Amino acid sequence: MSISPHAVILVLYISTIILSDATTITQEKAAVQREKERILVKCEQDGTDQQMYWYRQVHQNSLELIFFSQMDGLDTEKLLVGDRFSATRENRQRFLLNITNLQPEDSAMYFCSSSFHSAQK
Ligand SMILES: *[C@@H]1O[C@H](CO)[C@@H](O)[C@H](O)[C@H]1NC(C)=O
């Protein structure tokens, strides 16, 4: 990949989370994108968890919940992020994060998680 000297490189670190109840979450590990590009990040769980979550951590700040899916087939709830962000619950296992027109401030760690019962009370 050739990168123009004027390009802004974004790094989105994505990790694999193994949950205590033996559900394994699979995500891509890292992605480097240029400004204005888009990214589609797949999160997949091998269990039957109803709730799925996308979190973001900017610098050393705390984790922020940015998307919450109650169940496949239902609308996804968005928090804290704007129009360039969307998430799609493709089916029970897959929750896709879609960011368009990437901006330098989107550089962060993005975590996906799932749970059988709602963690939102
Ligand atoms: C990602 O979001 C953009 C903007 O809303 C949309 O046009 C595009 O179809 C989405 N891509 C996927 C794979 O959902």
Could you explain the architecture of this structure?
- With 121 residues, the chain is mainly β.
- The protein has a single domain, classed as Sandwich (Immunoglobulin-like), CATH 2.60.40.10.
- The chain is built from no helices and 10 strands.
- The strands form 2 sheets. It has a 6-stranded mixed beta sheet with strand order 3-1-10-5-6-7, with no helix packed on it. It has a 4-stranded antiparallel beta sheet with strand order 2-4-9-8, with no helix packed on it.
- Strand 8 and strand 9 form a beta hairpin.
- The protein starts with 8 loop residues before the first strand and ends in a 6-residue tail after the last strand.
- The mean pLDDT is 80.
- The structure holds 2-acetamido-2-deoxy-beta-D-glucopyranose (NAG).
Q: Summed up, what is this model?
A:
The chain has 121 residues and is mainly β. It is 0% helix and 46% strand.
List its traits:
4-stranded antiparallel sheet, binds 2-acetamido-2-deoxy-beta-D-glucopyranose, signal, 6-stranded mixed sheet, mainly beta, 121 residues, Immunoglobulin-like, 10 strands
